[in-house]
Give the backbone structure.
Amino acid sequence: MALGTALMPGLRAMMLIRLRRGKERLERLPERRGRTKLARPEGTLLWLHAASVGETHSILPLIEALAERHPTRQFLITTATISGADIVTGFCAQAGELSNRLIHQFIPYDVPLWTRRFLDHWRPSALLLTDSELWPGILLACTRRAIPVGVLNARLSTRSWKRWHQMRRLVPPIFKRLDFVAARGEQDAAHFAALGARDVVCYGDLKANAPPPSVNMDELRSLRAQIGTRPVFLAASTHSGEDEIILRAIAKLRLSIPDLLTIIAPRHPVRGAQIATLLDSKPPLRSKGAAPGPTDSIWIADSLGELGLFYRLAQCAFIGNSLVAPGGGHNPFEPARLEVPLATGPFCDNFRPAFEQLTGLVAPIQSDNDLADWIDSVMKDPMPWRARAQQARAKLQSEEGVPAALLDRIDALCV
């Protein structure tokens, strides 16, 4: 696309900025331009793209199921983030012989030259995108090469659907080019169909089957020893505007739970220093290698890919991007698998089907007062909330694994 070509100089500059911020790896920057040192394996190569941690976790059971069905099939996994890449690396370390059939690359930026270079080298048999990762240039390039494209766990919030609808005269009809869409819920299915997708089905949310987030056990043991018996509350994946509300709630708890340790894990770690400025005292920052001391009431966990660690340290957790409009929420399934009592704000439309699946098991929060009251109740009378957390995990365990019908659809793409 002409726009992608025009943006090439800016994208090169952006890559360098991301590199300085720790969001890229120097030795792998060429992958963002479609270059690689790896050879393409022989035979069928299925390409799966996942944006970041949650999406990557969600496709791992799917890959295992497909690999069992097809013992010679190869898998190319692309991610947009370093944390997603780390999930693939950890999976490969535990996947045994399957790891020999897995290749990870960072997805190239959506520029015609870089996309062409990527497709010329890898020649995938089919492409499976996840959630709302719809790259117009890549979709069009695959269509021109007769590479079938499906969407897994397809998600389009009302806000995103309206945005795509408004742009329908400015972008090619990419939704009509999708071979199939496996929507995570009926509303998402309706949004894709309204935008022109022709073969839309619902198989539920793949994230419900994803494994719990990984953890470095040595680090977990060390931090548990350092924190001791102090009660721990986690504010997970917070976004701008929420931290102030959370800090007001924590201030209300100082009299009733004076030794409470609050971990604030911003969705974007670069915000860690900004959050620190909201406090009178200087809190320890995970990005600086600092752990919470006995007198620290706040620990800012501004690091990537460690939510599995922080969830395991906490007696209860609030899921961010949900207290301030427009929000959107975040995936509750991963912490639910760890039996962590959970709460969320009202603005969680991006994950509405997930929260509906856990109705009555995730506490609704509207304000700092609600949050303070909920934390207080969990810490002082934990058994009812632990029971809810156990029910949430049991509900997920009772769900079907990767649907056979979805595996059949994918197989049809690779014929």
Observations:
- The mean pLDDT is 92.
- Residues 2-211 form a domain with the Rossmann fold fold (CATH 3.40.50.11720).
